[in-house]
Design goal:
Rossmann fold; oxidoreductase; 17 strands; six-stranded parallel beta sheet; globular; alpha/beta; ADH-like_C; alcohol dehydrogenase (NAD+) activity; seven-stranded mixed beta sheet; metal-binding; NAD; Quinone Oxidoreductase, Chain A, domain 1
């Protein structure tokens, strides 16, 4: 069943070899939806730091080494919003032509392993994703698993929702894992970035008092406009740890590090008070380490948690917060063809909020 004529070919942004340039190919095949698959027309897609690292060949795996098992040519993108235009054989009756769907990092799961059964399917041992294994949202049409579909409400703004599907749910999960209570102090390192500006808002939604750490007067104004109580410019502050301890009278209850920079993580745990939680999000390239002494962690009873996106349930919770206007991604909409320039800006760290590419005309 289809809603509109489907072309045989499409425009995609691909990288032929990791570390190579982005090329726009205009005769790439449009996928045919197989059993229990839908075909979606991609409307908008966010651009994530993980897209840049994967394209550059610097994305790190769980062992700290570069991920090399990546489908080539590589088509990135995992913060997409599309509209269903065709249903493959066997799709259930609750799916309909015209419905909005999300294109997330996770693409397929087994539904049988201990992690799927526990509701943390992002750790599925047989999972695939739209960054390393399957073509992502940097294309005009995409086939998606109908049984693991991110069905979006009809009344969401598709320009805003894309970043929620990766940056949003990851920041949301990081704040959940920080276990902050109303009135407690939470520091967001990288507060003006794509992940960070959302973490500030999720923390505020949980009742925390937020300290944003980033650089520049523009980001100061931006982060404070999101509701942060304080802002620390790390380029102008001689000792950021000491300043956090001064503001919080002994250390923050939680620190969320969203920056993909090794220096941001090195001593972040030392910003914490007794019993505090370091919630790690950004993944710097290479194999950097935390530099906090073990004695500090033990004696002060610190907790460290990692956050790999979130479950589909948590993703839809994050979507709902944006749908209700509680958390609003700061997005700049650009044409699809500007992806190479966006990558350059990401490398320089010049972007506040999130860049969203308009894919469909």
């Amino acid at each position: 069943m289809t809603a509109e004529p489907i072309p045989k070919t499409q425009t995609v942004a691909l990288v032929r070899q990791l570390g190579g340039p982005v090329e726009f190919q205009h005769d790439y095949p449009v996928p045919t939806p197989g059993p229990n698959e839908v075909l979606a027309k991609v409307l908008y897609t966010g651009v994530c730091q993980s897209d840049l690292h994967t394209k550059s060949g610097t994305a790190a795996g769980a062992d700290g080494k570069p991920i090399t098992k990546i489908k080539l040519p590589h088509i990135g993108g995992h913060e997409g919003v599309g509209r269903i235009i065709a249903l493959g054989p066997g799709c259930s009756d609750d799916l309909r032509i015209g419905g909005l769907v999300g294109i997330r990092f996770s693409s397929r799961i087994c539904r049988r392993c201990e992690f799927c059964l526990a509701g943390v399917e992002q750790y599925c041992i047989k999972s695939t994703n739209h960054l390393h294994h399957e073509d992502g949202s940097f294309q005009e049409y995409i086939a998606l698993d109908a049984d693991y579909l991110t069905i979006l409400p009809d009344d969401v703004d598709p320009k805003l929702i894309g970043p929620v599907l990766c940056a949003g749910v990851t920041a949301y999960k990081a704040v959940l894992n920080a276990n902050v209570k109303v009135g407690q102090w939470l520091v967001v390192v990288g507060a003006g970035g794509g992940l960070g500006h959302l973490a500030v808002q999720y923390a505020r939604a949980h009742g925390a008092s937020v300290i944003g750490v980033d650089k520049g007067d523009d980001k100061r104004a931006f982060v404070l406009s999101l509701g942060a109580a304080e802002f620390i410019d790390f380029t102008k502050t001689p000792d950021v740890i000491q300043e956090v301890q001064r503001i919080t009278n002994g250390g923050a209850h939680a620190v969320v590090v969203t920056a993909g920079n090794a220096k941001a993580f090195a001593h972040a745990a030392e910003m914490l008070r007794v019993g505090g939680t370091l919630s790690c999000v950004g993944i710097p390239p290479g194999r950097p380490f935390l530099e906090t002494p073990i004695s500090t962690i033990v004696i002060r009873g610190l907790k460290i948690t990692g956050n790999l996106v979130g479950s589909l349930k948590e993703c839809l919770e994050a979507v709902e917060l944006t749908r209700r206007g509680i958390v609003t991604p700061n997005v700049s909409v650009r044409p699809f063809k500007e992806l190479p320039q966006v990558y350059e800006e990401l490398e320089k760290g010049d972007i506040s909020g999130r860049i969203v590419l308009q894919v469909a005309n």
